[in-house]
Amino acid sequence: MKIALLATGFPRNYKQTFDSWYHFLFSKYDVDMYITSWDKMEVNYNPHAVRHLPKKDQLKNLDIADLKDFYKDFITDSLFIDYDKFYQNRFPSIEILEHRLFDVMKVTQKGRQLGGFWVERLRDQYFVLKNCWDIIPNKEQYDLFFKIRFDVFIEQIEILPKYKLVVPKSILDYKFQDFLAYGDYEHMEKYCNIFDHIEEMYVKHNVPVYHAERMYNWYLTEYCGLDYHIDKNSEYQLVREISNT
Description:
- This protein is of the alpha/beta class.
- The protein has one domain (2-99, 119-194, 228-238): Spore Coat Polysaccharide Biosynthesis Protein SpsA, Chain A.
- It is 34% helix and 22% strand.
- It has helices at 14-26, 64-70, 83-88, 104-107, 109-134, 185-192, 198-205, 212-223, and strands spanning 2-8, 30-38, 40-42, 59-61, 75-81, 144-149, 152-156, 165-168, 180-183, 229-231, 235-238.
- The strands form 3 sheets. It has a 7-stranded mixed sheet with strand order 5-2-1-6-9-8-10. It has a two-stranded antiparallel sheet with strand order 3-4. The chain has a two-stranded antiparallel ribbon with strand order 7-11.
- α1 links the parallel β1 (2-8) and β2 (30-38).
- The longest helix has 26 residues, at 109-134.
């Protein structure tokens, strides 16, 4: 099985999670790795929404050469977005519809708590994912597309190719997690291009676009008309603490 592996976002703790990726993916399948990230990363993991972008002392330059060297046996292509230039020329933020009765950003506690900042943080995250999808050439060569965050340590997984789209089970009060997904070309193309539809989902359908998993569930089922399989047997751990190694 030939797999395109999409690794996106801040490359937190990639050296700590690599062994698990190697054991369950690289050593078992023919894997081409595609990386899309920023040229900077947050020094500290922030588990809750904040109201502003990280200050300069909260960011550090990413050692891109070291990252590429670490994955040299697997990486096929990569894109590192200039963090400062991006935020100087960023696409417009979504305007919150204050006048709309029962607007999800006003009537839900999470909407009021997270606000427009978290919506835009998610949009930036999915902008990076879209770019990773776009750098993959000749997509027809792959049997499966596997999207993962750098800080995901895989404790147990069995690839289920009979399903067109697979997502990991949730440990909270929503259906699944958004840190990982895999599937065929048709389904993963839609999964990886959610960025293009977030504003429309909010403006036209009042979808809670501040909440990644609930937004994704609506997008996949209602907007795209897709079925997905929730993998309840695999196990993962998010490596939250930032390592200097």
